[in-house]
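Example record used in the benchmark description.
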Amino acid sequence: MAETQAFDEAKYGEFCGRLFMATIDMGEVATVYFGEKLGIYDALKETGPITAPKLAEHLGLNERYLSEWLTQQSIAGILDVEDASDDASARRYSICPEYASILTDTTSPDYLGFVGRFFEAVGRVMPALLDGFKTGKGVPYSAFGPNAVEAQRAITLPGYVNSLVSDWVPNTPGLKEKLEAGAKVAEIASGAGVAAVELAKAFPTITIDGYDLDEASVAEARNRATEAGVSDRVTFTVADARDEKLAGTYDVVLVFEAIHDMGNPISPLATMKRLLAPGGIAVVVDEKVQDTFTAPGDEIERFMALSSVVWCLPQGLADGPDAHGTLLRTPELTAYARKAGWNDVEVLPIEHPSWRFYRLVA
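Model output (structure tokens):
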């Protein structure tokens, strides 16, 4: 018979409080979605202090819904109110510059206005996730809807815009020199094309071929390349990284934040080796998780673990039965790379709060 543990009242109360606060936080993330999606935060940044009726007119929104949202946002401490004693229709609401930056500046490293999009995307597939626990079936990326593409783009964009060219490239041995010499580049799992376009803008003699399975992402990437004026040198193709017909010889092969999402991590790593020219450079960027399992984990580890349950693992299982999930640790990536034919994996000296940078050694 199992030994009965003593009931810890303090532990009980702490966990009750934790779940209650998490419920509030979850609901407030949902309301952030409304503010970001409807452009309310942007409008408040533009107008300064404003009443609900005037803001509703400015945005073309229903005043009653907007007034309730503004009330909730001020109670949550996200928005400021000039005089809380005013009638609801007379209260003037505003957003402080610090919160406005976090919620509206899409290229800021601290931008988090997109978080509600993840909330909506996961919400729409909850029945499929429940079914997956019973059947083992995956949930394809496309099932998460257009907000998944937008959220994925938003979470990576600040890094690509602010750090890719200025920090990541020069801190990868030999990469800047190859790009300056007009390298031919392949990006596997190129997504919305932000990284490829940023590289093309910075290095005007390179050519880039981006490959991704998601048609919506490829369409957005093509539009991005056209708008940036680099579509003559940057192409995007709907293609499976495991397809052995994917061929070519590239001086540089890149995979940004995608290996852990794939149905079999060894396959794309083998594709990278097949595509790379002798003396070429292959770089993988993936999650910066602890190299050993630790429980309880810190905030980053907790975020990565929950992302695996509701996002990365289900999408990976839709791609193949050997999906790894978000918690891809350095020893595991190294083992996959060696099985794919690489001799070793080098961790690059690049600092990032949630990503780790690897060079694959042939």
